[in-house]
Amino acid sequence: MTLRPLVLALSLLPALAAAGPENSLRPQARQEAAVATAPEDGDPKPEIASVAKGGDAANGEDEATGSEVQSVKVSEVPLPPPVREELDLSEAEQAACLAVLDLMRVTYTVSEPVIPGDDRDCGILRPVTVTEVAPGVALSPPATLRCPAAQALALWVRDFVQPAAARLSERGALTAIRNGSDYVCRRRNNATEGKLSEHAFGNALDVMGFDFSEGPNIPVEPREAQGSMAEAFQDAVRASACMEFTTVLGPGSNAAHDNHLHLDVIRRTRGWRLCEQGPGPEG
């Protein structure tokens, strides 16, 4: 057997190896598209994933060039106006409200705006301080309120409280309404968290009791089935309060209101009112 064909074949191997695909490309890593990361907790200011040209968005640097990452900025969502500003009356509305107080002979002074430095929502921009809610009927102590709350209080006293008090002939005329709380920047039921009370905007008053010229005062307290005129009076003024106020709470509503009537003029959808009369007698 001759060795010539084998030698010839071996001599051709380098040429065959050089005849591979001359234009083939070196494999390259696939470039992933940058995707915005949606916040899981509903934060209104989502963070956006960093984008690096030809590099890794995770490490924040372009591996090939070392260039800085290009980040997308998101503008901050503006805060709503403070609640005290949302509740503020116009000049014309305030003038009309004060005219009603003057017509009913309420004794009051126009106070300086109440704007606490440590809370963005509390306060009253056009407060009035009421000393007499009707002629001869004092607020003890005086109450600082928004004018709509003062107007509701004056109407209630004139149209309902004084006529009911006139039925208590042995006590004489109504002389004072005891004020337990008017404006104060706090949360509902004095809790450490949760929604602000309507007291925080000058929309609420806590009535602790009623004083008379001749007989004993009538404090607000649980009076289920007493069968007394004091109970009848308290029930009458409490029920009628919801004709002027949008919230009326008192004994029986919860333990926090067993010694006073909470009256406020919070705004609700479609004029809905919360008038809790407390539990009635069994049977």
UniProtKB/TrEMBL annotation:
Keyword hit for Electron transport: no
Signal peptide positions on this chain: 1-17
Name of one Pfam family that matches: Extensin-like_C
Annotated region described as Disordered, given as residue ranges: 20-74
Organism: Sagittula salina
Keywords: Signal
Residue span, Extensin-like C-terminal domain: 96-275
Protein's name according to its UniProt entry: Extensin family protein
Superkingdom to which the source organism belongs: Bacteria
Cross-referenced InterPro entries: Extensin-like_C (IPR009683)
